[in-house]
Every structure is written in C-alpha cells, then in structure tokens.
Amino acid sequence: MCAMALSADLLAILVCPESKEPLLHGVDGSREYLFCPASRLRYRVDDGIPVMLVEEAERLDEAAAAELTGRLSGRA
C-alpha cells in the first residue's frame, strides 16, 4: 500500500538527524524514502510518515550513495 507523497512543506523542514543536512525525496516502486547524501543514510517512509531514526536507517556505501544522489538530484 502506497501512501500519499510527502508534502513539499514537510520536505522543506526535514533534515538528517545525523548530519543536519537537507534530504532528497525518492520513490522506488511503491517504497517512498528520504536520503541524505552527506551521511549516506536512507530513511524509510511508512504509510506517509518518515522514520527519522539513525538506528533504523540504511547506510549506503559510497558508490551506491553517489548513484542515488545523482539520480535524485537529476529530477526536475
């Protein structure tokens, strides 16, 4: 089940709890997530609610983080 996309207002104020840097928003199939290029952490979104816990986030390796950053930054 895919929830509504996160609002632009919410995305504008959310930052990574570890790096305090802005997040990129992504969708992979039916999975929505937030990604921080600085910390290389991908935070899941459960039913429209971002899970902003470092302990629950997925830390990507440098190559995967660079690829994801490029893909998400290239969006119009």
Q: What features would you describe in this structure?
A:
- The chain is of the alpha+beta class and 76 residues long.
- The chain has one domain (8-73): N-terminal domain of TfIIb.
- The chain contains 2 helices and 5 strands; from the N terminus they run αβββββα.
- Strands 1, 2, 3, 4 and 5 form a 5-stranded antiparallel beta sheet that branches.
- A hairpin with a 4-residue loop joins strand 2 and strand 3 (41-46).
- The chain is globular, with a radius of gyration of 12 Å.
- The chain starts with 7 loop residues before the first helix and ends with a helix.
State Rg.
12 Å
* Number of continuous helical runs: 2
Number of domains: 1
Overall outline: globular
Looking at the overall shape, the CATH architecture is Single Sheet
Structural class label = alpha+beta
Order of helices and strands: HEEEEEH
Distance between the termini: 26 Å
Number of strands: 5
State the name of the first-level CATH class: Mainly Beta
| Poorly predicted spans | none
Largest sheet: 5 strands, antiparallel
The helix content, as a percent range, equals 10-25%
What is the CATH topology descriptor?
Answer: N-terminal domain of TfIIb
> Average pLDDT across residues?
91
**Strand portion, in percent?**
25-35%
